[in-house]
Amino acid sequence: MLRIYNTLTRSKDEFKPITPGEVTMYTCGPTVYDYFHIGNARSFIMSDMIRRYLLYSGYKVKYVMNITDIDDKIIKRANEEGIDARQVAENYTRAFLEDIEKIKIKKADVYPKATDHIHDIISMIARLIDNGIAYNADGDVFYEISKFNGYGKLSGKNTEDLEAGARVEVNEIKNNPFDFALWKKHKEGEPYWESPWGNGRPGWHIECSAMGCKHLGETFDIHSGGTDLIFPHHENEIAQSEGATGKQFVNYWIHFGFLNIDNEKMSKSLGNFFTLRDFIKKYDAETLRYFYAQTHYASPLNFTDEALSASAKGLERIQNLYDKLNEMISSGDTGTEEPAFDLAGYYTSFNESMDDDFNTPKAVAVIFDFAKDANRIIHSGAKFTRGFLESLKEFMDKTAVGVFEIIKVHDAGAGRDLADDLIGILIKVRQEAKISKNYALADLIRNELNALGVILQDSKEKTTYKIH
Question: What is the pLDDT of residues 100-155, one digit of tens each?
Fold first, then answer.
């Protein structure tokens, strides 16, 4: 039974989807004005692992990640670069989609863009005005938080606390300093769209409300994002959506903890700000994913080079096991032995760990215990049945690959992509060189591939490889 810590209820709740066997899930995506950083990457990767586990558990998942392509930050970047805001958004949207592919994040079912949903946004704002919860102030439209009784239920804040503890920019056109913008009146040099209240553009919060309701319905199962988004962004999403529809917006809210760099908050001024593009020049996707999986998604995480190096080293054990199993299966190195191995117990332990609020550290530990036992058996010298070896590989395919994507999958004969094809060709050339006794060429191919991190593994039947 899956239980999720729900920010809304502040308790670990049994997961009951709206439609049995199906899950609707929305994750806050990027504001596309720059390359995203490794703190953002944690939210994206952990959302991906949660989605993958739901799929592993047999659910049909509709997964939506929005792209905020109109915002103050985008306009500021456009002015700095002297180009159109739309071009800024297009450039960094393309970069975002390229980068999440590099860290093995499954494609969303929908990547809705705010600028493609202006009609939906205007319709929701109009409903809020009709319901008496929003007001037009000479072309600017604001949400009136005092008119929504549930304001603060996600964050635990209330209007009295806000008024007592916060400093807010004075704006005489608002009824209350804490009312927030739904529609921003057009300013010279900014993009704009026509609306019943005049030319302008949407506020940030209303974009996610409109896109979530559009693609997942007025109530959906899961909404995830960073802890920093609880207030005001997610709080305002709830106020807008429920103020417009009169229905509960989201049933389960999942929030990811902060990422620190060497025990300090990441910031450009401290010189410890790293984009994902910076990171993948030094470490691979599997190392980053494993590093994040080692800490529970809700806990803060400290990012250091030492910790990343330890993660890379720790992954070698299960990568080597996976490669060895592939080698034994593909080479026909099998026999008749069927050893006692509690494979069902490992599945149970893995499932129980992930069912406990997606406890990835415990689940990863299960995979490592499995690898320890499996290594001991397959290195005993006995010849095992193909079925037994395939059952071990299947466990790794479903968990380490399918849910976590923390090990590389390579097969020299599979031709998975261009790199596989080219390495396969070089392996064939090397085999032909050995047959013709051109050992100098065979050694040259091996050494050059080795220098690129491609390690050839020869057996009597065939040559396979793994990549370091």
Answer: 999 999 999 999 999 999 999 999 999 999 999 999 999 999 999 999 999 999 99
Domain boundary among 205, 235, 256: 256
Judge contact between 142 and 181, C-beta under 8 A.
yes
- Per DSSP, 257 falls in state P
Is residue 274 included in any domain, yes or no?
A: no
* Spatial distance between the Cα atoms of 256 and 410, rounded to a whole number of angstroms: 32
Tokens of 260: 């620190």
Pairing of strands 264-265, 301-303: unpaired
Domain count, the chain: 2
| pLDDT per residue as tens digits for the range 212-222 | 999 999 999 99
Band (pLDDT 50/70/90 cuts) for residue 425 is: confident
pLDDT of 342-378, one tens digit each?
999 999 999 999 999 999 999 999 999 999 999 999 9
Do 423 and 456 form a contact (C-beta atoms < 8 A)?
A: no
Residue 365 lies in a domain: no
In a domain, 271, yes or no: no
- Over residues 298-305, the mean pLDDT reads 93
CB 271 within 8 A of CB 292: no
HSE value, Cβ hemisphere, 13 Å, CA-based, for 36: 27
pLDDT in tens, 196-239: 999 999 999 999 999 999 999 999 999 999 999 999 999 999 99
Cα angle at 370 between 369 and 376, to 5 degrees?
Answer: 95
**Confidence category of residue 416, pLDDT binned at 50, 70, 90:** very low
d(CA 235, CA 416): 44
For 109, 286, 300, the CA distances from 315, given in Å and listed in that order, are 30, 8, 22
Tokens of 332: 């026909």
User: What's the burial of 387, exposed, middle or buried (CB within 10 Å: 0-12/13-18/19+)?
Assistant: exposed
Q: Could you tell me the CA-to-CA distances from 122 to 195, 202, 217 in Å, in that order?
A: 7, 8, 17
- Distance from C-alpha of 432 to C-alpha of 54, rounded to nearest angstrom: 47
pTM of the model: 0.86
**Residue 104 falls inside a structural domain:** yes
Which residue shows structure tokens 């007025």?
218
CB 266 within 8 A of CB 37: yes
**Of 192, 225, 256, which one is at a domain's C-terminal end?**
256
The C-alpha atoms of residue 143 and residue 182 are separated, in whole angstroms, by 6
Domain residue limits at 435 = 418-467
- How many CB atoms lie under 10 A from the CB of residue 189? 9
CA distance 186 to 359: 47
The CATH number of the domain where 98 resides is what? 3.40.50.620
Peptide bond into 232 cis (omega under 30): yes
The residue to which tokens 């504001």 are assigned: 31
